[in-house]
Amino acid sequence: MRVAVIGAGVVGLSTAVCIAESIPDCSVTVIAEKFSPYTTSDVAAGILSPHFSRETPIERQKRWFDDTFAHLFSIAQSEEASEVGVQFLSGWEIFKEAPIEPIPYWSDSVLAFRTMNNSELKRFPQATFGWMYTTLLCECTSYLPWLEKRLENAGGQLQTGKITGFWELHGKYEIIVNCSGIGARALTGDMNIYPVRGQIHKVHAPWLKHFVHVGDGTSYIYPGISSVTLGGTRQKDDWRMSVDPSDNEAIFKGCCALEPSLQRARKLFEGVGLRPVRAALRLEKEKLEREGSHMYLVHNYGHGVAGVSLHWGTAKEAAQLVKDYSAEIGTKSLTGNIVVCYCNPEKFSTSGAALAVNPGIISRNRHSTLENIDDRLENAGGQLQTGKITGFWELYGMYEIIVNCSGIGARALTGDMNIYPVRGQIHKVHAPWLKHFVRVGNGTSYIYPGISSVTLGGTRQKDDWRMSVDPSDSEAIFKACCALEPSLQRARKLFEGVGLRPVRDVLRLEKEQLECEGYHVYLVHNYGHGGAGVTFHWGTAKEAAQLVQECATEIRCRPVRPKAKL
Fold this sequence. Notes:
By secondary structure, the protein is of the alpha/beta class. Helix content is 28%, strand content 32%. It folds into two domains: 2-92 and 116-197 and 272-323, NAD(P)-binding Rossmann-like Domain (Rossmann fold); 333-566, 3-Layer(aba) Sandwich (Rossmann fold), CATH 3.40.50.720.
């Protein structure tokens, strides 16, 4: 399954990592116009201190925060904490007037939370109430590159690009995850999301060890690993990305009022970011439809000032929504004249893959080596679906035409007893010095140098259904091949495998129409290639495609009838 994640901030990258690490056989690509250090997240102070949203249930907000805190807590406890940019940080959050909720919902999630006493409040004459607690700070300039590496280690990819509409990705990915932050306004047309401009300073002030945050967010001081972040501004519907000198002056003045020693700090950096604020964070599935085609979306945006505070919790939930989609996509019905190529569950059929370059859907195991043909099929609008078909009527009502390229599976599927297995066992070895093949005429021994390995064979055991490697066959194969090429004694063994050749006296390539109680199924059979599957695959695929065209003419755009009970 292919998943695209739009957005490479802290929400997008964490979501991509959670998907890649939790869903087997899932290929994840992050697509973004900008990557770290040029994202909004790179400007964020990175403190874990969420803000209450009236539109979102408290238990959901708390779960997101607790999951994020636990994730970063484990990193802070590890030896790589400084490299990742995560640290524990204690400090004060102060208020000019006591808040409506004197104890926040997340108070038992952070460490050592308590209300400030009068002696502590004397340090901040402008405050009448406050909290002291220990939380975590995550510097995204270090954390985002670490997430990128973690994603790549899980098989994910990063791709620079600007997406202006979801349908641009149709046919390339099965699921799109929208973590585009403030970009979601243009991408989705969601006018409920708006920017709240934030401007910050970073200064060198290593003597500061505690944070100070004014409750309304107008001023804050967050000591990080290599610098101290000073802020800030909260300017609603302000799209300016340039640094405003008047804001600089106000920020520095406000922070020096809280911590006078900042007058001696050395300025390092000034930056601006647009917080993607929404009354309720959007974390949900959506299915788009256009001209019979479907687009599966998961939205995860609108974190506002709490992107770092909630990122891992929302990423986990978004990954679960992607999982929920998987089964639905696997059984999705398509319309129109569609080719369905389904294969032996044990082996992906070469002739089936070749035919499937004509738009259609093909069922196969994801460990197939025919990736190039897979890609060509998908680029032509086809799809791949894992599943086992035990009877053609299972597909009635979903597809107009069924193409049977099931190899040895055709024996059970069609009841054709003229097809039988001829077992083949092979070795693959590392012997890059071999450049030419050697084959004994009856096929009892052969040596075929490939691009990355050399294939040694083989066996031709009729009506033998064994799929396990036979040690005695292994020994015989290697001995015979070494007799042909003695240098193989030095070859390094890589792999041993078994396949069942689908042998039939006459390859079956023909149309068939099944009928039951007035219902029809149109079939094209293309199986029984024996040991010549690769040799004949494209030629038989072209002829099968012609038979599909003939079936389509016979059908004459016949409406699909409801599936019968047969």
